[in-house]
Write a structure and sequence with these properties.
Layout (H helix, E strand, L loop, with lengths): L3 E5 L7 E7 L2 E8 L2 E6 L13 E3 L2 E3 L6 E3 L5 E3 L8 E2 L1 E4 L2 E4 L12
Antiparallel strand pairs: 1-11, 2-3, 3-4, 4-9, 5-6, 6-7, 7-8, 10-11
Length: 111
């Protein structure tokens, strides 16, 4: 695994997401409670940033049409999206968040 620094924990408020670019990928680093997640920052229904959506109940909602995605699995939990998005491993080291975009947790290839 190849982890790269994405941001600090303070940059991601509770129940929000932050857009970051890691390597060739746009990633949304999201915080739900004290847990951090990394998900492809691109809705599989319409190519809009998920980082601009609302985070709640360990999901992120796309602001355009309301599709919801599970932050742990990338699976859609609300229509109109039917295809999952990539999720990436996250490590918190002190106050820094690291993400590995060379591996996906759910086997989905990021676009």
């Amino acid at each position: 695994m190849t982890f790269e620094r994405a941001c600090t924990t303070d940059e991601v408020p509770t129940d929000e997401a932050l857009a970051v670019t890691i390597g060739a990928y746009d990633v949304a680093v999201a915080r739900h409670g004290e847990e951090f997640f990394a998900i492809q920052d691109l809705c599989s229904h319409q190519a809009v940033p998920l980082s601009e959506g609302e985070v709640s109940d360990c999901t992120v909602e796309c602001w355009l049409h309301g599709s919801r995605f599970d932050l742990r699995t990338g699976k859609p939990t609300g229509l109109p999206a039917t295809e999952p998005v990539a999720t990436f491993p996250v490590e918190v080291r002190g106050d820094d968040i690291y993400v590995d975009t060379t591996t996906t947790l759910n086997g989905v290839t990021p676009s």
